[in-house]
Amino acid sequence: MNTEQTILSVSQLNNQVKFLLENKFSNVWVQGEISSLRQYSSGHIYFTLKDYTSEISSVLFSHDAQKLDFIPENGQKVIMFGGVSLYSPRGQFQFKVKSIHVSGKGDLWEAYGRLKKKLESEGLFDSSRKKNVPLYPEKIGVITSADGSVVRDIINVLNRRSPHIHIILRPSLVQGEIAVESLIKGIEDIHTHSSGVDVIVIGRGGGSMEDLWCFNDELLVRAIANSKIPIISAVGHETDFTLSDFASDLRAPTPSVAAELVSPVRDDLYQYLDEQEERLLEFIQSHILNQYQIIEIAMLSYGLHKPEIFFNQQKEKFNNFMNALVNSAKSSVDKLKKKVEIEYGKLEVLDPRSVLERGYSLTFDEDGQLNDTNSPLKIGDNINIHFSDRIANTIVNKVEKK
Amino acid sequence: MSNKKISFEVSMLSLEKVIEKLESGSSSLDEMLELYEEGINLTNACKSKLAAAEQRISTLVNENNKFKEVSGI
Predict the structure, then answer these.
(1) Region of poorest pLDDT, from A9-23, A108-122, A257-271
(2) How far is B34 from chain A (nearest CA, A)?
């Protein structure tokens, strides 16, 4: 042993190595694959970065982890920026990560961000641009792949809820380079070569961000924004939004949900229509019953008691008729109109005010009692004659039986 | 009156308007009878639009630049 060499403690050795490493390797870019990823409640993320033959322990502290715009996962091929160090207490060689970019996708994400800003500033995503999705569509255009479960799911939902809706499928690629052109042409074709489509559902099932990437294409996004027919985007991704989702008139997290958004339940519609039919009839009924009430009050105010029995009979007959109509399956409009007109005519006849208007008059004695056929009337009686527009007070001169 | 040209959506919304008008109570009996007739025609038109026995499913195909809707998938 050479006694001229300095003898270091373990701590001293580790610290010196740490110093050396941090000097030489403080800002490096490293490429590799993530594995053994663990995240702690502190927010710090620990993992191993490896290539085919080597690996290095890595840590991403929480304040840097928060800045990521994606969630790191095992298996991801990444490019990391950071510094190498030694964790002295353990003598552990580690890479302290400052930022991570998904390899090759780093550019894609940046492009996404730039395009999103650009289109946003053009107002393409404004809510004022969005068209209302029809409440009661008759024909739905579906742009998606013809194979796979997506189309079947949409059809199942529509079949269950709205079998009256016509579905027109315009098959398209939904992944890969040519998908964009296929999707854009799909929108065009539905506009140009199909008639009566009230709303379009465009989308696909779930997949990785790479699978869905065609829905971030600028041309497709513009085509969706400029569509005359309302478009629902249904790109199967629960949490992430593609640019197509921002441009569409409505976004659904999955194609099945999209189908639900456009399909009112037919049975509910039938029920609604039946209820409206009843209400229509009831409006007429209550209007006429109101008239009965008004006349009833008029009759009482004129002290007309005997006609009241006849009046009540008419009212009851009318009530029964209306109930029968409400209960019957179909009410013929003409039949209703005729009957109503007849009833109304009768009502007018019974109305004491219209009697007066036809020139008849009513006579009352001093006590306000109506003088009708059997009332005692003597010479010298003070009577009031009610015309439609005035009351004459007079004394009976002569009474002659007819 | 042909109901084919009037869309289901328009019929449903017109029906709502008829009901609203009747509800407001501002019409004479004649007007009410007219509204009633219009309302019943609308409910009938809507019901007939709903009455498809089987769902129509078709595919838009392009054969030599000729487009047509073919039944089925």
Answers:
(1) A108-122
(2) 9
Largest CA distance in chain B: 61
B-chain residues near A331 (CB < 8 A)? 40
- ipTM for the predicted complex comes to 0.90
CA distance linking residue A319 with residue B22, whole number of Å: 20
Given an 8 Å threshold on Cβ–Cβ distance, is B40 in contact with A277? yes
| Between A386 and A38, residue with greater pLDDT | A38
**Closest approach of chain A CAs to the CA of B20, in angstroms?**
10
Mean pLDDT of A20-32: 90
pLDDT-derived band at A100 (thresholds 50, 70, 90) equals confident
Average pLDDT over residues A212-241: 91
Task: Give the Cα separation of A201 and A158 in Å (integer).
Answer: 12
Nearest to B8 among A138, A192, A277 (CB): A138
One-letter amino acid at B66 equals K
CA dist A230 and A262 (Å) reads 11
- A234-270 pLDDT per residue, tens: 998 766 789 999 999 999 989 999 999 999 999 999 9
Instruction: List for chain B the helix, strand, coil content (%; round to 5).
Output: 50, 20, 30
Check if B30 contacts A (Cβ < 8 Å).
no
How many angstroms away from the CA of B2 is the closest CA of chain A? 17
B1 contacts chain A (CB < 8 A): no
Q: What does the pLDDT read at residue B1?
A: 40
What distance in Å separates the CA atoms of residue A184 and residue A273, rounded to the nearest whole number? 39
Is this model's pTM higher than 0.80 or not? Answer: no
User: Given this model, what pLDDT does residue A37 score?
Assistant: 94
Q: Does B60 touch chain A (CB under 8 A)?
A: yes
